[in-house]
Design a protein that fits this description.
By secondary structure, the protein is an all-alpha fold. It folds into two domains: 2-37 and 116-186, no CATH class; 49-110, no CATH class. Helices cover 79% and strands 0% of the residues. Helix 1 (2-48) runs antiparallel to helix 7 and helix 2 (54-64) runs antiparallel to helix 3. The longest helix is centred in the first third of the chain and has 47 residues, at 2-48. It is elongated, with a radius of gyration of 22 Å.
Amino acid sequence: MQDSLALLHFQTMQSRKDVNAANSIRKRVIELLNRQLQRQLDNILFLLTLRYSPDNIAVIKKGLKSKKVRMRITALEFLDNLIDSRLKRLLIPLFEVAVVDKKKRSNIDQLKLKIPTSYDCFETILTGNDSIRLKIATLELIRELQNPFYFPLVKNCMDSGDPELKLMAKHVMVDLSENRAMHKKLNP
């Protein structure tokens, strides 16, 4: 009885550690995605300087990066007044979601976007032109999730031209395979 209780306690503690590790990696992936989004918004603003006054775009950029919500809204309104209607339809919704309402999810509904699954997100990152750091962090998250459902994504990374990504994919593949084998032994 005491051995069983100790084993259950150990499994519970291990499960908590696994959840904490997955959450930590998930936060790192989100941080990398946020940085990538910020770089893309900066690139859009840079491209706007080719068509509009660089001074005006600099003021908008400074306002959009402000910690004050009112400053971000004012900068967005300035951008809205500055650019032509064709660009407005494309860019304003992006900046609204990315800059003004960082904590609110309601604006996503206004864009009528299909919310992708975790698998879709991981696939987009791992097969896209994202940074190797982001791809490796995504593989680390897959490793922590220990879900064999992601096996095909990891297998595709093993064909990568990047040696670091390829090595990480091999390690994750081994871990997922071991987990799958252990799961089959415990649940025949």
